[in-house]
Amino acid sequence: MSLINTEVKPFKATAYLNGEFIDVTEADLKGQWSIFFFYPADFTFVCPTELGDLADNYEAFKKLGVEIYSVSTDTHFTHKAWHDSSETIGKLQYPMLADPTLQISRNFEVLIEEAGLAERGTFVIDPDGKVQIVEINAGNIGRNAEELLRKVKAAQYVRENPNEVCPAKWKEGEETLAPSLDLVGKI
């Protein structure tokens, strides 16, 4: 079953953020755009490159009113240790959610049960707490924050303009489409 347009299931997690442990629940997502960015594990290889890429683009996401939540099945203590020991992870300014109970990974259907790890899953959640974008990558394929930023802009655009759709490769400011009988077979 697709998670598109489903509401985020209830959860409570501890996250590491800016030298502190904080609690995060599904209620924190309401009223803003959010990204849940699942990755397999701290202290690995592809994961820090992805989290660093998000950190490098974090201000652009914040300007769009988007909060990023990285999520792995590691503990919040492990997140702190990784943050304190890695130059790349040390620049993160978004919450690193801990999912040692595996509940959040199960809720988003990215849990690799036999390994107790999460797939590389990306979920864009609208201000109503509903999933609008789902992307799952194989463990050895890293993601691109700039492409994710483009997709967020498209999701925000169609939310504000419900009678329009964004075609392939759409970028902010480019022409959109207004679905109608006149367009059938013309594209």
TrEMBL record:
InterPro entries: AhpC, AhpC/TSA, Peroxiredoxin, Peroxiredoxin_AhpC-typ, Peroxiredoxin_C, Thioredoxin-like_sf, Thioredoxin_domain
Gene transcribed to yield this protein: ahpC
Family under the similarity heading: Belongs to the peroxiredoxin family. AhpC/Prx1 subfamily.
Locations listed in the record: Cytoplasm
Subunit structure: Homodimer; disulfide-linked, upon oxidation. 5 homodimers assemble to form a ring-like decamer.
BP terms from Gene Ontology: cell redox homeostasis; cellular response to stress; hydrogen peroxide catabolic process; response to oxidative stress
PANTHER family listed in its UniProt record: ALKYL HYDROPEROXIDE REDUCTASE C, THIOREDOXIN PEROXIDASE
Catalytic activity: a hydroperoxide + NADH + H(+) = an alcohol + NAD(+) + H2O
EC number: 1.11.1.26
Name the record gives this protein: Alkyl hydroperoxide reductase C
PROSITE patterns according to UniProt: THIOREDOXIN_2
